[in-house]
Amino acid sequence: MNRPSWLRLRTALQTLFLGLIVSSEALGGGATLITHGYLHKVEDWVVPMGLAAARHPRRLHEFGPDGATVYVLRFNPDRTLRATHLRGPSPLGNRSGDMILLLDWNPYSGDLNPFSPPAENTTAIGPIVAEQLLSPNLLPGFPGSITRLPLHLVGFSRGGSLVCEIAKRLGEHQVVVDHLTLIDPHASNNDGFKDPLPMVDGTVVAGVYENVLFADCVYQTVFFPTGSSARGAYVRSLTGWGLDGWGQYLLPHDNAHLWYHGTVEVTFPVTSDGNASLTASTRSKWYAPVEDQGRRAGYHYSLRAGGDRREVFDPVDSRSGFPRLGLNQVWGEALGVPSGANRTPIPDLLPEDRPNLIEFHLAGFPIHEEVPTPFPYGAPIRFAVDDPFAGPLTGRLVYLLRGNRDATLTVFADADENSLNGWELGVQFGLPPTGDLPSVVDLDLRQLQNGIARGLHHVGVVMESGTITREYYAPERLQKQQGGTGPVSKRTLDTRVVLREGGKRGALLQPNPGSLGYRKEPLNGPSPILRYVTVPSGTAGGTPSPHLEIQAASPAIHVVESSTDLVVWTPVWQGSFEVSASGAVRVLEGLDLGSGDAKSPRFFRVRVQ
Asked: How is domain 29-237 classified at the CATH fold level?
């Protein structure tokens, strides 16, 4: 949920009913596997990317610098994998539950050592890796298979073909893969490529299989070796975005993984992957304005970073799509997106009744909607604060369970996001099989609502069928409070505003002189609201000064805070905003550009409670 030539308004609604707040600030965790391509090994750039993922600012803020456990996976002579702990706490002591696996498949990926074993097809190596991921004893200290967690598979070059084959083999075992990322994927001697190598890799073009929830693909066609697009993925073309002229590697192909690294490590002004660096100047050329110098691209759409996969914003360019296209449209009805056939079927499913948790949200957030543009300049942006939790707490679960065996679902409150170290309170449900398509079920969570102690809680689900367990944490959190002698009824609105000068290529909405355009889109999951506003450049009548009005239920305490990183918030001078008698907050002129540096992100948060 990190987030230029545009002003961005982001809203996260938090409503308190009987002392219960649901907040969209938490993120879901899981297991991330990152791997390389031909002539590479993990030390080259994979380890730096994995360590950057481990300290991603959204998880760092939540769980501290040691939040993720990182392993390196290498092949033994007998072609099994061995895991070596690289950094972070033990799996049981890991509060975030995040596991990062860095796969070194050299020498099978291909190298120049004449004494190494020969390179092999990804169709041979992928199933081996998948079977090891299913093994209950791959990771020291982790009880059971790593497929217990939501999986994010990231592959570069030939590694893109490899992770497609890993996902396919997991799909044969009826395991859902949450996220598949392909970085300039190059299937050797397949998908139209003709390479002077003996390998024939598995397809990438048709390599997004039916068990993948979300897929994204970044690729370039500037210079050999080039990458390919992938059907069914959210595709971001890198061609024409300066990889041939502004990169730190000799080849645009290698600059593609540096581009992705820049979306993992979003610290400024300089980002390094150990071999090459991204400067602020390079970021301004490599990323479209809508991508906010990498903050809102690539890794942003992982569960750990919390980006909204249902976004439908203006494309980066004519060759690129938008995130919602990467969702599994075969499951469109259950996911609430248009249905389609953007996945490759897996013909040979093994007779296993594996439970799969696809999505879980605490219900009650506003529904996605679009607002026509342009919006008349000078008019306030108004929206009412509704009370979506004026009733019992519920949760919405999307799950898949083939076969004939029922599953047991436990919904629980937790002090962290690691179910392996126990939880506070759990409520059980029975789930029937779904058939070949996912089912959606609304869960009555009043028992959880009434039983939890005061304080902040993560909410997770564990689904068990036979000896197989899957888990998932909701991106929302619960906070239970107690006020006075009776029930507490409050409303809380958390509004974030990013202010940018508009009018450059790739702006989310192209501004018209003297007009202010905006629209609303979902923030996280199927329902929270995200708003974008484009601020036009100065006009003959002076610099436009849009303002914001928030209509609350009644006058209350209003606090306006400013931030540049969404972590540290500083109160804004009280004279910069006003509160009307009806409870409306008006952010006054002069607040929009602050110091006047329109190239720096600026977030404003208005709290009404």
From this structure: Rossmann fold (3.40.50)
Domain regions of the chain by residue span = 29-237, 357-368+380-480, 489-608
Write the DSSP string, 177-233.
EEEEEEES---TT-TT---SSS--PPPSTT--BTTEEEEEEEE--SSSSP----TTS
CATH class of 357-368+380-480: mainly beta
Tokens 């370039």 belong to residue: 220
Would you call 107 helix, strand, or coil by DSSP? Answer: coil
Q: What is the pLDDT of residues 256-283, one digit of tens each?
A: 999 999 999 987 667 889 899 888 888 9
Please confirm whether the linkage preceding 57 is cis (ω < 30° from 0): no
- Alpha carbon of 506 to those of 90, 290, 394, 511: distances in Å? 44, 6, 39, 11
| Model confidence pLDDT, tens digit, residues 54-106 | 998 878 877 887 789 999 999 999 999 999 999 999 999 999 999 999 999 99
CB contact at 8 A, 533 and 580: no
User: Distance between CA 125 and CA 165 in Å, rounded?
Assistant: 8
CB atoms < 10 A from the CB of 128, how many?
A: 19
Preceding peptide of 546 cis, ω within 30°: no
For residue 397, give the 3-state DSSP assignment: strand
